[in-house]
Structures are given as structure tokens and as C-alpha cells.
Amino acid sequence: MTDHASSGQTDRGLECSPQTSAYRALMARIDRAARQAGRLGADIRLLAVSKGQPAAAIEALCRLGQRDFGESYLQEALPKIARFGDKGLVWHFIGPMQTNKCRDIAAHFDWIHSLDRAAHADRLDRRRPAHLPPLQVCLQVKLSLEPRKSGVDPDQLLTLARHVDGLPRLRLRGLMAIPEASQDPAVQRAAYARLMALFCALRAAGHDLDTLSMGMSDDLEAAILEGSTLIRVGRALFGGREIG
Ligand SMILES: *Cc1c(COP(=O)(O)O)cnc(C)c1O
Questions:
Q1: Complete DSSP assignment for 100-140
Q2: Whole-structure pTM over 0.90, yes or no?
Q3: Which of its termini does the chain have fewer beta carbons within 10 Å around, N or C?
Q4: DSSP for 18-78?
């Protein structure tokens, strides 16, 4: 552990903790990209992806005012959610979906970004506890033709959106995608432009969507230029992680 990291453990040292400087640097990146796009940085919601990170790192970001946190693995996420239960945080499930995860996701998360099939939607709807507001949903779209990737095929998207809109305990908010990694900003932007086009098509079909979940540590500028409303950032905020 470096001197900086250990000083971040105390209130007094928080000003120079690694999370503080990474957070400020990220805010500056968001503002710069937003300005270039003729948008306001404040209009882009930041989801801090805390998978693989210890509770202390979440705590440090909480103190900086961060509220939205994303996790990919249930067994890692559930103890964290319980630990911060009284802090008013908003928890987003962004990991791979499986039928046997639906109950815990419905019971413990506020959002899911990785829904890609009607059977899981039905299960989440049935399992969402009555005392909670509807589960907020982004549909994950498959942007490339690679067969193993999760996500709904673009030509099935409208059907799935209609289905989810008909479920009372789910609230369809928008779309999410994880494009194939590329260092080329033009390639990054082209993928996100495709997601934006699908988003516009769904809205034109009458779906009341407000969330375009796109952009990560290495391509958030491209995503913001293409109209992202929510970026999911892990490494640029927390540094490296042990898993995922
Ligand atoms: C891990 C992950 C992220 C964050 O990726 P970084 O490159 O660390 O910013 C975003 N979205 C999803 C779906 C992820 O699994």
C-alpha cells in the first residue's frame, strides 16, 4: 500500500486519497467530453463500477458524494449492499444474467443493465418484492455478430421492449451495450452510434426511455459524443481490480 492509499483511510487524508484524485480527473474528462458534444457534464450520470474493489474504496467514493454503484457478481455484491444499506446508495446489476440470479437481483438491486431475454424479465417481475419500487431496466443489446456475446439481437429488440413494458414490476428505462474493445475512437463511436439509433427507434415506437448506458474507462469520450446518459466506470476510478 502506498502512502497515499494509507492516508486515504482517515478523514483528514481523504483530500489526497487516490479515489479523490481519480474522481476529480474523471469529472474533468466527463466535462471536457460533454463540452465537446455541446452538452453538460452534469447531465451524464456516473455509475461507479465497484466489482473487485473493497468496501473501503466504496466508502471513500460515498464521502465524495457518489451514489450509483455497479456490481457484476452476486456473491460479491450482496454483502456490500448489506453493509451500505443505510447510506441511500443506488445499486446497479451489470453482470452476466442467469435464471438462478433473478431472485436476488430483484430483491437487492435498484437497476439491472444486462437484461436480454423475456424469460428473465418474467422472473424478475415475479420476484420483485411488493414493498420496493419497480426494478429499473436497461436492455443489453448485442452490437457485434460474435455468437457468444450476451445481449439481445437488434432485430429482436422491439419485441423484447414491448414485453418488458407490459410487466408491472419492471420499468424499462433504456439500453446498454458493451462493444468489442477498440483503441480507435472512430470505431468506438460507430458502435455507440448504432446503439443510439436503436434507442431513437424505440422512442419513435412509443417507448418512454431516458437512459443510454454506454461508455467505460477507455471509451467514455466516444460514448458521450454519441449521446450517452450514463457511463459505467471502474478502472479509471478505482485503479486495477482483482476480478472481472
Ligand atoms: C467491468 C465493467 C465496466 C467497467 O469497466 P472499466 O473498464 O473498469 O471502466 C463497465 N460495464 C460493465 C458491464 C462491466 O462489466
A1: GGHHHHHHH-SEEEEE--HHHHHHHHHHS-TTSPPEEEEEE
A2: yes
A3: N
A4: HHHHHHHHHHHHHHHHHHHTT--GGGSEEEEE-TT--HHHHHHHHHTT--EEEES-HHHHH
Average pLDDT, the chain: 92
Contact 137, 111 (CB under 8 A): yes
Ligand 1 contacts CB of residue 123 (under 6 A): no
Query: Which residues pair with residue 178 across a beta bridge?
Result: none
pLDDT at 202 > cutoff 80: yes
Which residue CA neighbors atom 7 of ligand 1 most closely? 217
Q: Provide the 8-state DSSP code for 166.
A: T
Which cell goes with 135? Answer: 426494478
Give residue-wise pLDDT tens across range 124-176: 999 999 999 999 999 999 998 776 679 999 999 999 999 999 999 999 999 99
234 lines ligand 1 (CB under 6 A): yes
Q: Residue 54: what are its φ and ψ, rounded to 5°?
A: -75, 160
Residue 51 CA to ligand 1 center (angstroms) comes to: 9
Output the nine-digit C-alpha cell for 58: 466504496
Contact 221, 29 (CB under 8 A): yes
Q: Is 178 in the pocket of ligand 1 (CB under 6 A)?
A: yes
